[in-house]
Records
---
Amino acid sequence: MTVRALIAEDEPLLLEGLRAELKAVWPELDVVAAVHDGDSALQQALQQRPAVCFLDIRMPGASGLEVAQALAEDWPAGEPFPLLVFISAYDQYALQAFEAQAVDYLVKPVQPERLAACVQRLRARLDERASSTGPLPQTLEQLRALLAAPAGATPAARLEVIQASAGNMVHMVPVDDVVYFEAADKYVRVITADKEHLIRMSLKDLLPQLDAQRFWQVHRGTVVRARSIVSALRHESGKVTLTLRERPERLTASRLYAHLFKGM
Amino acid sequence: MAGAAGIDLRRIAVWLWHELRVGVPIGLIAATFISVMFNDPFVRTLIYSLCIGLSIQLLIEGGRYGLAGWMRKRGLDSPSLRENWPGWQWMLPWSVGAAVVGYYCGSLLADAITGGQHTHSPFGNNLRALSLILMFSLGFTLAAVWFFYSRSRMLTLQALTQAAERSAAESQLKLLQSQLEPHMLFNTLANLRVLIGTDPARAQAMLDRLIAFLRATLAASRSGSHALADEFERIGDYLALMAVRMGPRLTVRVDLPESLRALPVPPLLLQPLVENSIRHALEPKVQGGRIDLSAARDGDALVLRVRDTGIGLANVPASNGTKFGLRQVRERLAALYGARASLTLEEAPGEEGGTLATVRLPLQQSPST
């Protein structure tokens, strides 16, 4: 039985090297996509639906962890979620986190014995999976823990006022007035009860400056003020639809964050 | 509280020991000298010498700390004041006064100790002997003052030198760490491992580059200089390693005019700039880009440029990196050339975008030309 796989690694020689070594220890593995950046990895994975993804941590575009997060959110319901293996040369925080969460990972340069052990584990998990519903709940749990793991950076200072420029004008928006933040490419849309601003900053950089008690991340691209949420409606797919107090539009909380909304 | 008091007690004990280490030998020498010169009993002379000597020392040191403290309290500040030295213009008259007052007080104290049978010192009725002793005390006093002054100065200098050495060692270690960044090293080794299997000749060439890079990076001396051609060669080693890793995502252009090749430059000055270009500008860019390394002459200045076509300054998150590389280049330039050298960082001109780092140095002729 062939197993479909994706490899995402930005360094061409390393990608070819991994492909060759995998071929030697796992002949049934069919690499259906080999990509050099995070954005292509996400796109190809969603298109090809591989059973195993090898993701480098440091890549241009999205990082390996961000790809995993996006996959967990966008993977079609009912399809078996791929097994993930992270690859890193040296990210001590990431490696510690992987170790703690029992997530498969490989350290570059990849040692043949280590790769063989990893392949064996993947095969065993794939066999297990043939008889059960798939590893998504467990993977979600692991990913949640990984995303919450400290990145090693010092916590940023709390932001009180958002300075959003529009032409020659700079709007001063108190953080308390914001209903939700939404990622839009390199920008973040800042939505208050009656206005919308754009700031040139990534949501990833903004997030550490917000009070996590008051502002909840509910999706990789959405952070919402907790007290603005009126109700949360669970769907069978695992997603949750949020109704807001100050705004008519509805927001979607992904499976990765659905655990935030459960009765007390 | 108890800990602080303990430390204070220990400091006082150390200070007292330092003072007595000077005062007691002076008293001993003086007693020997006087007892030999005037044929007096040694023990009695010793008591007098010690009483007089330590009284004078007490007055001088008390005045020194007191005056320095008073001057600091009045808002004055200088390196010597921080060493509790108010300056010779204060200390000279004070020492003379201290010598006279200390002489009489010490004599009275010694009288009391020896039983008061010498209501005045043994030389009280002999003006010549008295003035000789006074001059003698004064001479010792001034010598002692000078000794204290130069010793505290030396200690301060020593502490300053040690601190400077420590900070230099720390910054060198940090520089080394930043250049031997594990992520770069292990990825390079991983590439090498693949090449050994697939293309041994290329693996060998890459290993030679890695060896040259490591040798240059680990070379202990960051002072001195090497030729600009060597600088470009060393940077070339690093870029060649990165080119193997990044494949077609990295291209490099080098422009080094023949006439500038021999000019002396500080070793690996450009390395942090090139690393920044790779790490913060090109690695995050999906399609990669180019690094231009160039040297030019502008009047009596040597202008070195590192330009990349990466994501640009505005897109590098502020949280990214510690600016250690830039600071290190600026510090080296300031130490070597003062205000005559500069480093500027700006958006690169032209539609390719990216970042341009420009280093200007005063043009120096190489020793050979």
---
Amino acid sequence: MSERPSALLLQLLAATAALVGPAQAAAQSDSAGGTAISYRHGDYDEDRLKPAPLDGSDRRYRVRTEHFQLSTALGDSDQLNVGLVHEAMSGSSPWFSFPDNDGDALQVMSGATIRDTRREVSVAWSRDRGEGSRIGASASYSAEDDYHASALGFDWTRPLSAAVDLGLGASFSHDIIDPTDAAEFDRIDRAIKNSTSLFSSLTFVLDRSTQLQAGVQLTHASGYLSDPYKRYYAGDRILSDARPDQRTQTAFLLRWRRAFIEQDGALHLDYRLAGDSWGVRSHTVEASWYQSLPHDFRIVPGLRWYSQGAASFYAPFSAAGTVGRFHSSDYRLAANGSVSASFDVRQRIGAWEWVVGIERLRAHDAIGFGGESDPGRVSYTQLQAGFDYHF
Amino acid sequence: MRPDRCLLLLLAALALGACATTPVQPWERGRLARWDMRFDPDPLKSALKEHTRFSKEGSSGRAGAAGGGCGCN
């Protein structure tokens, strides 16, 4: 849970990442001044664990998501978005790793008894101040049985020249962790985590068909950043997950877009370099091709490559039983990597637009770097379907 | 040289390079106004995917993630 900044916090920076310059403002003109409702259903399904776990269920996580959004104009220059999310989660989760006779890690899973739901409401407002300048603010609240997150965000964009826009954003999240079965499994009763994030970007119009956005995000989290549901094997002891109570993350982002008029398509290339004070480093490369077809069909094939190095205190276990102040066998802090492929189809019919998509992600230890890998790595398939309706 | 320093140099070069480009006039921006030229053409799809990645990967930081939550599993 707390080993990363709040996703809610990151959501609040979404508006900042999409900081609209002159080109983007023009691109969004088709929905400005009206009202639209959107719905998406998502189905996330993790592969069964291979090799089979030493104990527990191999039936891993499944999440079903319902996402509604209402977007409407308020007067000539204001826009309001209201979002509602409901998620139903079930399945088993990696608990800790245990060494076999050869010293290789065997995974111990929880039972497939996890049942939880998450509800989220979010409100975002923005105002077009003219001449390419825009301000925005947002607030959101997310609740699970064991986790509550509240967040506020602000963003601002303005042109620096005819070809360059500056974007700035800030966000704050306050999270409360209230683990289930705390007494039975020697977990904390209640803890707090606070996260603050700053984001800045420059958007360049390079020519009539090309634009580039370069950004940097700095996030600092403090408080309880361990995962109360993870355990750590150390000799004859099973310890609680223990991580530093401070974490500073930095991410550099590059997003390049080029239109190909003859092909009636556009190429998207994204790169992210991320690092943090725990020693985790990662590289992410994404490529997507947006192709328009007759009868208002659009298809979007995409590829994504992710490579991560391990946190400095990560180890699958300590066979000798020696542990430092911080220790974790969370597979998400191990050296790992993945390759994923996605394909989306959408079609506009009058005021309606339907969309379906699939993404398949396959984990590969060999893609990771710097540190040990973990048997709990996850591969998954994610489906989504929904519609937009413009009044 | 460390990768992050390389990227900083790249960003600086991009900023300088952009200053040298010929400004594209408003009436020349029709291609940039296309739906498929947005930095995030489908925010709801991005929200779903980024929320998943936030829960399953050790790094985050690409704005566009969606939804708060534990992400414990």
